[in-house]
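Hi U.,

Before I forget, here's the chain from the pilot set. I'm dumping it here mostly so it's searchable later in email.
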Amino acid sequence: MFTLQNFALLDLLIALTVVLGLGYAHRFRLPRPPVGRSTASDVLIMSCLVVVMPITYLAMPAPAVSAVFGVMIFVSLQLALGPLVGGRPATAAAVLLVAATAGAAIAGYGTLVLVLNSALIMIVVIGVTTLWTQTGMTAGHVAAFAATLAVYDLFATGLGDMTDRFLAQVEGYPFAPLLAVTTGAVPVAAGLGDCLMLALWPMVATKAYGRTAGWVGAACGIGLIILVQVGFATGVLRSGMAFLTVLGPAILVQYLVWRGIHGAERRTSRWLGGPAPVVDTSGRVDRLSAALRTARTATDRPADTWVAVDDDAVIAQGPTPGTALRAARRAGYQGVPFIRQL
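Structure:
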């Protein structure tokens, strides 16, 4: 039901997600994936997935879709909670939260499912947007992604019924990709994509152009949400409006303005306060290079082996970076080895 109280609660949850995300991203460091930093090709791939995945979900039974989102949420919870409580406690907390949500749905506790699911979505949004920001996603990447989503949302939601059909499919199931405060055929809610972009742009804008840009981005996003809600309440807009068709151009305009004012974006390392690059005078680089050359000439290692190197010696190996690191830990190595593929 569209009421002032429900809209206000949704606005509060969105604002809380954005503000907590800004603080979390600057204070905590998420482990960088072995694929490296974000590039323009990554944004292109993400855009293609956004188009393809909803079509795939519509072809799947609703319980399967719920299970897929449950797995995605579980992984994202581990990622976001790890820096707060540690690896194993984060896994335990993720298991507990996912199990509690699934159990509440099976038991028919709809209100509890709504509360737990909203909490899960908020944590997931903070974790995912922090990972994207810290792996080098630039303001230009976000602006391009937002523009792509605006066009997609126009056809999928504004002119088509794909979004409506998807929401009807996941209605009543746990792990729905919605930050919702009510249930029913027309819930008061924000989609996961909307929440991601609302939190991502202020975070990346802060990294690229400073706190003022971040807070302007946050205020603009929340202000647009409120304007859309006023349209719902007054009957000017219909439910299920394509919100990203409004938010996407707003992000693009902000990017062009800040780029015109500041020019080049601030690098991620400078935003995180990392130390300036220094010249290695210890000879460690030469020793690492020598150890890798020796490892490459070994006849008992496959060509695709990953090795953990400590100065002048290979201390462990494995078929993936993770297995090489775990092998080094099992061998008693307590430091941070250099992981490299042969």
